[in-house]
Design a protein that fits this description.
The protein is mostly beta strands. The chain is 1% helix and 46% strand. The strands form six sheets. Strands 20, 21, 22, 23 and 24 form a five-stranded antiparallel beta sheet that branches. A four-stranded antiparallel beta sheet has the order 1-2-3-4, with no helix packed on it. The protein has a four-stranded antiparallel beta sheet with strand order 8-9-10-11, with no helix packed on it. It is globular.
């Protein structure tokens, strides 16, 4: 970014996301075009949506909407679903079809959803819906492949108006076909695991709603969902990685090789899925002083297998990782977890 733009973007990074087949107006030709976007949002409300091919900004806070963005709106992500792209912000979710589903457009977004949103969003392969946490109403919501939002409903369980809870993590596990939410009491002392399944017609069924107070992972400072190779929820507790089995609810300590004494685990993620299926790594990020190290491990049953196959180190702190492509469109969905 510094090489392309001459300096870093303003603001402290908040979220990173990737969306394919996203329209924009090419300022050089003044014509409608399409690209894969890499989007960075910051804690003070900036949004920079860049073409993956050259990291030039094609949408920002001033150009993303048909109307001026409200001063207190906090952008979170631009992500892809099966048929379209979703702009997720504190004001809700806005939708537009990808350029492969229709002609390229200006790429601007219209009206937001009736529900508010948060950074916690995941895509469900079974229903082609995205599921999200509404931070204002303390509810789990879903948005379908045409952009219509509603509260997720299973008459046996309460999924809305959870005023004593907030969201700590959200993800999708392909091994079980479940949407995974980790909810937290407002003081962070009690965590609850919610596993959902959904049909293409939009029906939702709660597979499990389980308090984690008896598990070590209840005290985790970081969470991440294993995408494909195992039914695991990862959590970092006292600088150790725990894996909670999403079917038996037993947990185990996971010890990646190669970590040095004094390194603090500050990041964990499994980003396999979509067109990045060849990069099914467990990524562990550590901090030591002002430097960070990212280690990419092959996986066997959701566990790191052997020494890291890739190691990256530099100054700063790891916030998010996503694989991307320079293809204009790929009919696949990129995992949303940071």
């Amino acid at each position: 970014i510094t090489t392309v733009h001459g300096q870093p973007f303003n603001g402290k990074p908040q979220n990173l996301s990737v969306a394919t087949g996203h329209s924009y107006i090419d300022t050089e030709t003044n014509e409608m075009a399409s690209a894969t976007l890499v989007t960075v949002t910051t804690q003070d409300g900036h949004i920079y949506a860049m073409r993956s091919s050259d990291l030039n900004v094609v949408h920002d806070r001033q150009t993303l909407l048909f109307v001026p963005m409200e001063a207190d709106e906090q952008p979170y992500r631009i992500v892809s679903g099966s048929w379209g792209n979703y702009y997720v912000s504190s004001n809700g979710i806005r939708f537009q079809y990808t350029s492969s589903m229709s002609l390229s457009t200006s790429g601007k977004y219209g009206l937001e959803s009736v529900m508010k949103a948060s950074p916690y969003v995941c895509y469900d392969e079974g229903s082609s819906n995205i599921f999200f946490w509404d931070a204002e109403s303390h509810s789990i919501g879903q948005c379908d492949y045409n952009g219509a939002t509603t509260v997720a409903q299973d008459e046996r369980y309460k999924l809305s108006g959870l005023v004593r809870m907030t969201c700590a993590a959200a993800g999708y596990n392909a091994m079980t076909g479940n949407i995974v939410f980790v909810l937290s009491s407002l003081d962070g002392s009690q965590r609850q695991l919610v596993l959902l399944s959904a049909s293409f017609t939009g029906g939702v069924e709660v597979q499990a709603m389980r308090a984690l107070t008896v598990n070590k992972i209840n005290r985790a400072s970081l969470f991440s969902v294993c995408y494909s190779s195992a039914a695991l929820l990862y959590g970092v507790v006292d600088n150790k990685i725990y894996g909670l089995d999403l079917t038996s609810f037993t947990e185990q300590v996971i010890t990646p090789r190669g970590l040095d004494e004094g390194e603090q685990i500050v990041y964990i993620s499994n980003q396999s899925g979509g067109y990045v299926a060849d990069h099914d790594y467990l990524v562990v990020g550590t901090q030591q002083g002002t430097r960070y190290t990212l280690r990419f491990y092959n996986m066997l049953g959701g566990l790191p297998d052997g020494e890291p196959v890739v190691t990256l180190s530099s100054t700063g702190s790891p916030r998010a990782i996503h694989y991307t492509t320079q293809q204009t469109f790929a009919f696949s969905v990129i995992p949303y977890q940071d």
